[in-house]
Structure prediction request, 361 residues.
Amino acid sequence: MSDITPQPGIMEIKLYQGGQSQIAGQTDVLKLSSNENPFGTSDKAKEAFARSVHSLHRYPNTDHTPLRTAIAQVHGLDADRIICGAGSDEVLQFVAHCFAGPGDEVIYTEHGFSMYPILAHMVGATPVCVPERERTVDVDAVLAACTERTKIVFIANPANPTGTMIGGNEVARLAAGLPKGAILVHDGAYTEYVDGFDGGAALVDARDNVIMTRTFSKIYGLGGLRVGWGYGPKALIDVMTRVRQPFNLSDTQMATAEAAVRDVEFVERCRLENARMRAWLAESLAEMGVPSDTSTANFILARFHDAAEAEACDAFLKSQGIIVRMVAGYGLPNCLRITVGDEAACRRVAHAVRKFKEQAT
Ligand SMILES: *Cc1c(COP(=O)(O)O)cnc(C)c1O
Prediction:
């Protein structure tokens, strides 16, 4: 046996399961398993990506000023309190790296995003899972689970994979009730799908213990590019900047993301179309006896009678070339998470679920 042992916590990490993207023997595959934008990426962002080819031999800008400035202008924020990462996953990792370690507790909720316990283990901290109420974050339960060892509370709002949200007053009550020295991370990966929502930015401005994370992977249609950002109190951002690698983002990533964030018209069109098709899909499935909670994001959590029916439906959808997401690993074995696609995609998946239901009766 080798004397080489990994750091505490690392071997506890269960490898992240990504959304499947292929089905053996199927060519016309419809992928609705990773909450990707069915309309792709803004043309302006694609043009910026193409232009960046001319400077690939140069090291990238290290302080991200042009991208941070663009984000700050578009969202009305302070550029000095923005930090950018390779996806919001990297920003979440900066938080864990800087503010939690062995002996500390990191809270996430029952159906919370699977990266949260992974990040806790990565830094040797103890992940603490708190029950939700009806697939929604329960602020009282989170506050009751806090101890003097609690260093980070992760919530996604809107949440993934449930699609549910808690109101601004509830988030504020959570932030105000945390023990001294604990940070609330408000993961806003789906913020742009909620009309007029600031993603928690005003709460960040009002307090010294809240960090908001955002991503270019969802409504901006840039999941493959890997860009995200965080917004927080200056003191916390300054700490996180120390662990950020100086060249964590390429100029290609930054220039493309900058063009994407400035294309507010594209984002607005995607938000409206998502809302329209989400309502249609939820209603169509409900009529077939497949209910879902009101979703505030770009997916629906379809609820079946039991795990067996959800698994059978998933298998049937695969036979029809449609990939959705099983979420048993999130404590939701009777559910399937279905990304809201474009109109043709929504019609195709609704038609397939109807065939499945008819076949079963
Ligand atoms: C998709 C998603 C993210 C985004 O991750 P990236 O690293 O930015 O691609 C973050 N949090 C939640 C809850 C998500 O669903």
Notes: The longest strand covers residues 150-156.
